[in-house]
Amino acid sequence: MRKGSGAVGVRDVAVAAGVSAMTVSRALRGIDGVSEATRQRIASLAAEMGYVPDGTARALAVGETRLIGISVPNLFNDVFADILGGMRRALHLAGHPSIIDTTDYDPSRELDWVERMTVWRPAALVLTGCDHDPGLAPILTRARLPVAEVWDVRTDPIDFCVGVDHLAAGETLGRHALSLGYRAPAFVGPRPGRDRRADQRAEGIAMAFAGIAPLARIVAEEDSAFVAGHRGMAQVLSGEKRDAVFFHNDNTAFGGLMAAEAAGLDVPGDIGVVGFNRLDLTRVLSRPLTTLETPRRQIGQMAAAHLLARLNGVTPPRVTRLECRLIEGGTLRRVAP
Amino acid sequence: MRKGSGAVGVRDVAVAAGVSAMTVSRALRGIDGVSEATRQRIASLAAEMGYVPDGTARALAVGETRLIGISVPNLFNDVFADILGGMRRALHLAGHPSIIDTTDYDPSRELDWVERMTVWRPAALVLTGCDHDPGLAPILTRARLPVAEVWDVRTDPIDFCVGVDHLAAGETLGRHALSLGYRAPAFVGPRPGRDRRADQRAEGIAMAFAGIAPLARIVAEEDSAFVAGHRGMAQVLSGEKRDAVFFHNDNTAFGGLMAAEAAGLDVPGDIGVVGFNRLDLTRVLSRPLTTLETPRRQIGQMAAAHLLARLNGVTPPRVTRLECRLIEGGTLRRVAP
């Protein structure tokens, strides 16, 4: 039932799915006459079994084996735009076109995308972060694809990862505020579980304050980070008194600054504000934001360099952890503890 | 030499290129042994001649004929993120995966991308704006692909377009400032020729002031729109006195506001500031920015709806011009003319 090369064929998928080879063929070609549910089941099964269409036909048809697929949570975010900017330019110069898809932080959408992409036999894939659907790693390992995980780091990447340690990032910011005398911290960000990097940073801040003060966590999710920050700060101000508010990122922090201003409060006189990333916006503020600069373009460039090395038979380091830089800014001050 | 269907085959391309069919095949498959220059020449020629790989092999190989390719200038820009957000969700729900590429406002990169994409035989393409390399329309017409041009409008789209009239947008903003008594306008934006939409808006503003006052055009290009706006405003302030500064977009305008503040000027007391788009940032500012709200998500949604209609045999209107909304805001005031 298998082709000479030992590869999985249409018939293998048909047997596994309990349908005819013709149905598998129609389903995978997107031809009508197969229900959507069946089509999806067959496509999943085909991807799971490592089915790839005949190599020669595929290469001739697609005319492209240098393609690199990149998956990011969304495009609204300057962070991913910076990482992509650094990465795609390097890949492009090396003759690798890349295509992008977005997951909206949904592991099942990321999995769908990987299943679709592997059928196209790209040269490599790039994934954002290190948390994926459990079904994802086996598919990639079976496809023997080089895979870069970027932005986050973990000790056991699928292939290799390039990013920053978000727990340590949170701890750096927390310790800085603590050393200035702040004792009533709050964190404004997405609901726990949505964005593991945000969760890790919140945990890092909490660790810095452990045994001294609890970290209040305020959930603020809006289409716009600015609006989320504004509402998050309003919520902080309506509750028990807090002296320093850590925001999910700089855009959220800017929304918080505007909400404090609207409430007649002075920052840092009445309340401290801390961002994350040092996004472009912070480069023009009259009072610089206290934040942590993340090496986003460098992550993109290094991930590209490692991928290109990998494609040329050189094994890159499995874990590349890049340093962040504390920007002391002017939205925290020394307070009497 | 041609296949039964009248389609262009590998041999036709080989004859035209003066090489063997094997070389064409190797070149299009990205196999080594063909110089990069030759590969590019053959790929261009193949695209130009309308060569597409054998349909059945292609469909079986790619397993995907529902793919929609989308090209945008960049991903750093909230405008394109909004348009894409509105569009991709609708396409996704209709079972059309979409992939994105960026052109960095370079028509030759857009052309390259279209050439690459047409070989993949997507269901449709989406292009940003209506200004393309002259070689682009013939390729798309020959490929008989549905094509949506979004964000800008023109009377003779390749297939159909959905967007706003940027000339009229500029004129609306210019007339508003004029009616308030402003008489010394400046425009801060990219160099003429880089972004036709910006050029059109500048022209619209100039039209509003025609015969009354000339529009000073200040070029400010930086990686960051915020920084560009900051520097642009600094440049305006260092020159002949201006009373109203129109910015390329709201993020640039915010940079300008910060530069005015840094120079000790009050807005709108000492100088007026006008943005464009009503980006998210403006939703949290204490003093609302005078700007024009563009229907970005609606453009994306309508372009998707028209594409889906088109794919189902319904011809959409060739030109769909959506309205913008003036946000009077607080960064212009009534001045004695």
TrEMBL record, chains A, B:
PROSITE patterns assigned to the protein according to its UniProt record, in alphabetical order: HTH_LACI_1, HTH_LACI_2
Database matches in Pfam families: LacI, Peripla_BP_3
Domain of life the protein comes from: Bacteria
SUPFAM superfamilies from the UniProt entry: lambda repressor-like DNA-binding domains, Periplasmic binding protein-like I
Domain HTH lacI-type: 8-62
GO molecular function, a single term: DNA-binding transcription factor activity
Protein name in the entry: GntR_2 protein
Gene: gntR_2
